[in-house]
Amino acid sequence: MAQNPSATCNTLPCQPSRRQLLLATAGAGGVAAIATAIPFVSSLTPSERALAAGAPVEVDIDKLKPGEMMVVEWRGKPVWILHRSPEMLASLAKLDPQPADPGSEVLSQQPEYAHNPHRSLKPEYLVAVGICTHLGCSPSSAFTPGNPALGADWPGGFLCPCHGSTFDLAGRVFKNKPAPTNLEVPPHQYLSDSRLRIGDDGSPA
After folding, report:
1. How far apart are CA 146 and CA 117, in angstroms?
2. b/e sequence 144-182, b meaning 16+ C-beta within 10 Å
3. Residue 135 CA from chain centroid, whole number
4. Strand, helix or coil for residue 97
5. CA angle, corner 109, sides to 58 and 81, nearest 5?
6. Among 82, 92, 112, 135, which one is least packed by beta carbons within 10 Å?
7. What class does CATH assign to 47-198?
8. Backbone angles phi, psi at 52, to 5 degrees
9. Which residues contact 76 (CB under 8 A, 6 or more apart)?
10. Is 163 designated active site?
11. What is the model's pLDDT at position 54?
12. Among 195, 199, 200, CA closest to 75
């Protein structure tokens, strides 16, 4: 996302004359920009603060169509919920041995019930923490196979814009990339066919 030049100057050292010019010309727009800089947590209600601290999050997924992804927050982290289409699922079976850890052998990266080729409770849904395991950047979706920026053989997945790590549609990192492990799969369970609970899978604490 392109940065607003004035917002960049507010966060980086500026020459005094430049700062004075910005303050003099910002007007109402500057006030609005400052308001958006207030930490989000300060506006949270007590229940929302509990969620941010790690309480489970429940989300309705009934309107999520195949091929679509939504993002929710859990423990201050973005959690992806991707409704994989049949074509997306079929592509996973064709990737071996391209992922660095195709069998998800690093057990700390997913619960036991996600220790499978699709890394999820239900094959059609991927639930993963959207933070690259290299240096903590947030990867972007690149679902379209053959993406020109990633090569004709790109099967679809995720691209970390910081250092180029790529992940498949199960969150498995491809070989020879900076990220050392697959994306994390958080504890989760389905309360119904249309409602998902993230952060609690019913296992004993």
Report:
1. 22
2. eeeeeebeeebbbbbbbeeeebbbbbbbbbbeebebebb
3. 14
4. coil
5. 35
6. 112
7. mainly beta
8. -65, -30
9. 52
10. yes
11. 74
12. 199
Q: 157-159 and 166-167: which strand pairing? A: antiparallel
For 60-92, what is each residue's pLDDT tens digit? 999 999 999 999 999 999 999 999 999 999 999
The CA distance from 77 to 97, in Å, is 30
Exposed/middle/buried for residue 55 (C-beta within 10 Å: 0-12, 13-18, 19+):
middle
Q: What are the structural domain ranges in the chain?
A: 5-36, 47-198
* Catalytic hit among 115, 118, 134, 163: 163
- Flag whether the pTM goes above 0.90: no
What the block records as the tokens of 21 is 């010019």
With beta carbons less than 8 A apart as the criterion, state whether 114 and 122 touch. no
